[in-house]
Amino acid sequence: MSLTLPDGKRMAVAITCDFDAHSPWMGTMGMTSPSVLSRGEFGAEVGVPRLLDLFRRLEITTTWCTPGHDLVTFPDKIEAVLEGGHEMAAHGCYHEDIRSLDADRERELMELQLQQHQQVVGRKPRGYRSPAWDFSDATLGILEDFEFEWDSSLMGREFEPYHPRPVTVAYESANQFGPPSRLLEIPVSWYLDDWPAVEYIPGVSPQLGSHRVMLQRWQDIFDYAHQRVPNAVYNLTVHPQTIGRAHHVAGFEEFLTSIRALDDVWFCTLSDVFDAWTDD
């Protein structure tokens, strides 16, 4: 298995934007107060334009993983993302907790979010990212049934795409792996995500995180991949309502500008990664 990069390129960098807006507060956290919803609104009305301007100036094409609820709530922002040439991927219906759903309900919500993609985006998404980056026992099979090409929710590798396998858990003997899925997994990492590092939530996050610590972590991980992992895929996740804050987006621009100056780095979408991947 290998990644075929454009001539002269050593590694791929995929910037992915989880455009959650209202959904994570409603779906994952069960919070609907005006205060938390206003944070999602900030992501749509302020964060999205700031990011689109940054990507335009740096000539970077990105993947936006967006719940169906936010597609229909902020369709003008979705139109702006698409006009910028960026990719739209599935990200749940309302950022639901996948683990709490039975298989029938999970399938119903998959059907609904795909209808919303068709309604707003005008086409089916090629890839999927699970809300909160977790699967149920049914998720992998549902993604295969709906003929997704790639997923970006799991963490079985760091810089290499792979084909995920279902696991049968046995506490008193070895866990058993099923056959590899035809789905290509482009792995994520909590270390390459802005939300847990700097999104302050009273009563949940212990303190305001340092964006400088976050940016240095991102740089350290990038440097390792760039120097030591040929054909690496560096998959970074940001949220408009988080990275869109003034001090965050200014630091993010510094980070991206430094990488953009390297001649051997290929900025791409997650579907570009899929298209460049070859199974032996």
From TrEMBL:
Domain of life: Bacteria
Annotated ranges, domain NodB homology: 34-268
Name of the featured protein: Polysaccharide deacetylase
Pfam families named among the record's database cross-references: Polysacc_deac_1
